[in-house]
Amino acid sequence: MPSLQIPIDIIATWQLPPSCTRCSSPMEDLCHCLHECPHYKELWLRIGMSLHLNYFLQTYVIVWIHDMVCGVASNLFIAGLWQSWCWRNNVIFEHQHWQIHEVVRKTFILHDDCITYHMHNGHNLSSSHLLAH
Ligand SMILES: [Zn+2]
Fold first, then answer.
1. Distance 28 CA to ligand 1 centre (A)
2. What is the per-residue pLDDT across 25-41, written as a single tens digit (0 to 9) for each?
């Protein structure tokens, strides 16, 4: 079985930018990625996610993630998280700059695909997890 670990000497050669690749903020930490970056903020607003400011003190980011994953729009939130991760990585590794409307579209498509998958496989999703858009 092949190892899933990446040799440390390969990791040492990676040149990842410490700054945000979308807004050029000098620091791209978890708080920036989830709330402070105007591009991510725009994504969350466009897909209808709550941006309660009290959650974005550094210590409350995990609480916000937990609440969103356990909330009524969890599938959409997780789709948004995944697409924002792909958005970031495509800029860094593929030099592809998606426009915000593309990220929003990809998020809704992924969300709908997940719902379809669950329905075809007999999973019982409550209607509260299905958002109209
Ligand atoms: Zn940013």
1. 7
2. 888 887 788 778 899 88
